[in-house]
Structure formats: structure tokens, C-alpha cells
Amino acid sequence: MTIASPEALAAPVIDTHCHLDIHDRHLHGGSMPDPDTLIELAAAVGVTRIMQIGCDLEAARLSIQLAKTRPALVVGVGLHPNEAPRIFEAEGRAGLDLAYEAIEEMAQDEVVRAVGETGLDYFRSDESTRPIQQESFRRHINIAKKIGKTLVIHDRESHQDVMDILMEEGAPDRVIFHCFSGDASMAKFCADQGWFISFSGVVTFKNATDLHEAAAIVPDDLILVETDAPYLTPVPNRGKPNASYLMPFTVRALASLRSVDEATMAGHLWNNAQRALGVW
Questions:
Q1: Percent of the chain with pLDDT over 90
Q2: DSSP state letters, the chain
Q3: Can you supply one Gene Ontology CC term for this chain's record (predicted)?
Q4: Mind listing the domains of the chain with CATH numbers?
């Protein structure tokens, strides 16, 4: 499989959402990419920091272990919106409550900067799972507020419910809409609340016109960039496994959409990531 590699960026940036632990056989084939190799490749093109996301209990524990010995990494821990119903179905109320407690405990580790990804996913689930998804989202919101960590939101085909629940519960001081998929109107609403808006490789797709319009109007101090690797690979590698070293394609697309030079774009992204997640 041939993957086009980008030129190094004019200034460093931070990948605010990555899954170094995920081995997707459809994308990767039989071999699991080595995290240290991926971190080195990313640094070589200017992606010098990464937030590793663990979105179930096992992945959360592994993510913390990875970050303990890798200074480029910090961590987000949470139950993916589809993970909470799975636990509830398999282990019942007691099992889900124990999972919430485990996330809260892990989230207090010094390498953990964020709670999540959490939120709602109405694309890959039927309506029967929505009450548990919504309960889990509310619990994560309150964990983030209780321990003073950033909240990372997964929102897929659930925009209004996500925003309603955030407003009802009261958002934490720092909120990131991971892999933003709304339009310019939603981006303006999020920006008005002071929430960070993170764009993935989808913004490089020619048909993502609503997303292009959103990316153009997000304030300079609220825009972030991510890979969501190994998924959502930017053009020209769409359909192939994503990794942090491919993120320069997304950074350059954002710079073009916002009519700024690459170094300026990278500077905003770097500063915003440190405001959203702290310095490391």
C-alpha cells in the first residue's frame, strides 16, 4: 500500500485526538503499527505532540501506560458513546456504574488531560441505546467538572441532543468538539459558548462543503486539528490507514480555507491545543 507522505510543516502542531492503540484489520492488514514508530514519523513532519484517546476501560489503561514513558503523549479517557450501552447490556447497572468509577479514577492521573471521548452517536446505534448514551454523557460531563479536566465530545448525527445536554448540565470550563461534523451555524453556536472546535481529515474532502464553511468561520483562538487515526485519513490518502504524520495535509487545508499562511495556521493550532489541554 503506497501512502503519500507530506512535507514537514513550517511550524509544529499538536494532534489533539489519536488512537495509537487501535489495530483495524481492514485498514492495517495483519500487522499492528508500532506506536513509537508512528510518534517518530509524526515528529519528523512537525506533529510533535499527540493526545492519545482511550475510549473503553482497556484502552484507557493502555493509553496511560503509553504516555508514562513517552513525553510526546498525553491522554484522554472515557467511554465511547457506543461502549456504555455495550457494558450495560453485558454487565448491567452495577457493571456500568463500576466503569464510570474507573474512568473517574483514571482521569485523575497526571498524564490524563481530558475526559472522553464521550457524547452521543446516533449513526451506529438504534434508538434503544440512546437513554444509556445520554446518561453516560451526563456522567462524563460531571466527572470533567468535578476533577477540572477538559471534556472531549464525540457527536455523530446527534448535534441538537449533544448541545442540549451540555447546556442542561452546564459545560466544563474547557470543551473540545472532536472531529467536528456540524455546519457553520453550529460552529458559531459552539464558538459563542467558548468551546473548542477540532477538525479532522474530513475537511480535505471536496464534498464536505458544510464543513468547509464551518472551518472558515471558527475564531482563531478556538480552532484545533486532529487525525482521529487510524480513521478519517486526509486526501490524498483517503481510504488508507491514518496516522499523525499525515496531519500536515489537514493543517494545509485549514490554512487554505481560512486564507492564512501555513505558519500562522500552525501557530494558532499549537497555542489553542495548549490552552485546551495544558502544556507538555
A1: 93
A2: ---PPPPPPSS-EEEEEE-TT---HHHHTTSPPPHHHHHHHHHHTTEEEEEEEE-SHHHHHHHHHHHHT-TTEEEEE---TTHHHHHHHHHHHHHHHHHHHHHHHHHTSTTEEEEEEEEEE-SSS-GGGHHHHHHHHHHHHHHHHHHT-EEEEEEES-HHHHHHHHHHH---S-EEETT----HHHHHHHHHTT-EEEE-GGGGSTT-HHHHHHHHHS-TTTEEE---BTSSPPTTSTTS---GGGTHHHHHHHHHHTT--HHHHHHHHHHHHHHHH---
A3: cytosol
A4: 18-277 (3.20.20.140)
pLDDT in tens, 49-79: 999 999 999 999 999 999 999 999 999 999 9
| 10 in Cβ contact with 262 (< 8 Å) | yes
Phi, psi of 271 (to 5 degrees): -65, -40
In the structure grid, which three cell numbers stand for residue 137, read together?
454523557
Classify the phi-psi angles of 218: left when phi > 0, otherwise alpha if psi is within -120 to 50, otherwise beta. Answer: beta
Q: What angle in degrees, to the nearest 10, is found between the helix axes of 130-147 and 83-107?
A: 10
Adjacent-strand bridge partners of 152: 176
Sequence-separated (6 or more) residues with CB below 8 Å from residue 99? 57, 79, 84, 87, 91
Q: Do the beta carbons of residue 150 and residue 113 sit within 8 Å?
A: yes
User: Is the whole-model pTM more than 0.85?
Assistant: yes
Query: Which residue type is seen at 52?
Result: Q
C-alpha radius of gyration, the chain, whole number: 17
- Given the C-alpha cell 488508507, which residue does it identify? 240
37-48 tens-digit pLDDT: 999 999 999 999
